[in-house]
Amino acid sequence: MEDDDLGALLARVTRRVIDEERPLLADQGLSMWGYIVLSSLARAPAQTQLALARSIGYDKTRLITLLDGLEAERLLSRTPDPEDRRARVVRLTPEGEARHNAARRAIRRMERRLLAGLDPADRATLRRVLAELAGPAS
Q1: pLDDT at position 35, please?
Q2: Which of 41, 59, 49 is closest to 99 using CA atoms?
Q3: For residue 63, what pLDDT is reported?
Q4: Rounded to an integer, what distance in angstroms lies between the CA atom of residue 138 and that of residue 27?
Q5: Mean pLDDT of the chain
Q6: Topology of domain 30-134, per CATH?
Q7: Distance of CA 52 to CAs 17, 32, 49, 103, 111, Å?
Q8: Domain coordinates of the chain in residue numbers?
Q9: What is the pLDDT of residue 81?
Q10: Angle in degrees, 0-180, between the axes of helices 32-43 and 49-56, rounded to the nearest 10
Q11: Residues 25, 103 contacting (CB under 8 angstroms)
Q12: Rounded mean pLDDT of 37-59?
């Protein structure tokens, strides 16, 4: 019997992880894309909404609606860039940071449960290899 292709294996793992994450995010009132935005902003503010869309691989025309919802919940702020008043700098608010941290803690607990069958060295290797394959975070 032939081994599955890497893409097929990764797709199955990705679906499994996403299926486990969705209810955890819903408990925090977040969609998957909302969490992705908050995670990106937790790393660093976005200098423009367009830069944010590009960094997360999200359609720039749909991003405004997503940001409007997150801003209405006071999870992020958009302020004019002092260098270019047409551009908006997007930042996490303290509420956004708290919500992101709560979701992240729940996801990390799920990941520990999901990977519990692997010994610690294999878990560390898996994370290292996946990070290497994924390339730098945007």
Answers
A1: 97
A2: 41
A3: 95
A4: 27
A5: 93
A6: Arc Repressor Mutant, subunit A (1.10.10)
A7: 24, 15, 5, 20, 26
A8: 30-134
A9: 81
A10: 110
A11: yes
A12: 94
